[in-house]
# Entry
Amino acid sequence: MSSSSRSRPKALLAALAGTVLTIGLIPVLATPAAAAPSAAISGEITAESTDFLVYLRDKADLSPAKSLPRTQRAEQVYAELTATAESSQQDVRALLDERKIAYKPFWIANAIWVHGDKALAEELAKLDGVASIEPNRAHALEKPTAGQVEATVDAVEWNIANIRANEVWTAYADRGAGIVVANIDSGVQYTHPALVDKYRGNLGGGTFDHNYNWFDPAGICSTPAPCDNNNHGTHTMGTMVGGEGANLIGVAPDAKWIAAKGCEVNTCSDASLLAAGQWVLAPTDLNGANPRPDLHPDVVNNSWGGDPGDPWYGPTVDAWIAAGIFPAFSNGNDGPACGSAGSPGDNPQVYSAGAYDI
# Structure
């Protein structure tokens, strides 16, 4: 914290100046230079830790993208983020390569996932440019609240009418056509009758192309096709775009969807969430290669979260916004009390939603 100095009498200033001049004439013995301070290492990293995330200090300047046409913004953001990561991660990656240690770099937040112990973390913390070293935490998927089983209707479902989405459809003659939405969740059952026709990877005639339309960073699914081992992601995607014939479940039933499996089973690791967030901005083929920022979605939904006041996903959100992607998050189903909204849903830059009484 800075402080402002008060004015002093001229005589006192003169005396001080003389003292300084006198001290300047006294020989000074050489002292060794102080060691460079180590980056902050989270107390959650212990001797038993097997992996962690290294966050670099350099941040990309994404402001130039704001003045570009929307079709060019993602390319600019991708270029800035990858260039910053490439230049600032060199020392860390060189050490890891030399030791043949497994790691995964992320440009979306200028971070590196590392398979290693606390001793390695302490060594990496001494490298220039390292800002902090954090654990690879697990975040919870939002659990649904209990409700009554309603009979299926061949019309607009009650949830759509309750939030008056159908009135928007009528007023603007728009149900999401031409829009692509994504979710970062437990995956999607892509063959579900309410979702299969809306999958961007559905080429028709029973043919599918999952490249640039599906991402499984932890390799959980047994095949390259989308899967959902929790059903949570299928549910949230249905809320977004679901519909079968006249039975309209989703808010934007004419939109297309893609998905990233950022949640392994019941929880979502930091590393998978960063990988998924990166893929949303620049989708890749099924091998995680050949990124295409031009194929990014217009909206990304995240129905996961953690404790309030945690800014760790902020750089990813900033990158999405700079690229023209609308971020939506769950803010928890913990009631109306102050401070009950979880992170990242409590980030003021995102749109967040939670359960409410009807």
